[in-house]
Amino acid sequence: MKWILFLSDLHVFSKFAIFPPNFKIPDYGEVPHGVNQKILWKYWTDMLDRLKDLKLDYLILVGDLVEGRNNARDQLCTEVISPDPFIQGRAAVELLKPLAEKAQRKYVVRGNVYHDQVGGAAVEYIGEMIGAERFDDGTYSTWWLILNPENTDVIIDVCHFTSVPLVYRGTPLEREGFFEALAANKFDLPDTHKPDLIVRGHVHYFEHIEHSTMHIITLPCWQLQTPYQIRKGRGRMIPDIGAVLVQVMEKDEKEKRSPLEQDPIRVYKILYKHPKIGVKR
User: Fold this and answer.
1) pLDDT digits (tens, 9 = 90+) for 38-56
2) How much is the pTM?
């Protein structure tokens, strides 16, 4: 079996997101954890503990790994610990170190340029520092990853971007699957563009749709609800915190599997509850 861990939307150094404890920044020193980071760090260390005995074959980071400059007109750097993308990148590298050391191979997918910077500069730095695989153009990150895990027949399509639904969370996933299938047939694409598993980030919640020949997943995040999400829909945009672990069957295991095990893909979610909002009296 091949084990693949997907992480997305860390938003490191957002006031509402995770960053490592005891991290120091220039001209200031150690940055203490706030109330949000204490909650998320407890979840993060629990996740690491759950994974400690697992042989992790792949670690795939699916964009928006840092918060970025946070300089939109309605934010003006008020929701970020430090707006320096290089400092944020260093913090992300330190945060990811235990998982990067555990995984045999690492891949980095770029997110929104507002967060990961123009051309994915911040995640490119992270990819290089954690020893991510390089692509044909020499970079350590990409906008779109097509992965065929070693010794498997499975094709995995990974991209950060997908749409955010007004109501039905399954609709964007169904669209992803529909257009992938349509494109493969319309343009007579090779099998490498006919995915068995589609993975997307961006929306900050876990969703999993399973068809007879395809799985489609959106990933949880490591950022609590932000003022932007509250403005867009307090109840509608409550994020899921956590990661997704995927098990892929290798070619030489097919003959040994149970007659009931037809699917070479198994999806496991590692999720944590968003903290409650305090009630005042």
Assistant:
1) 999 999 999 999 999 999 9
2) 0.93
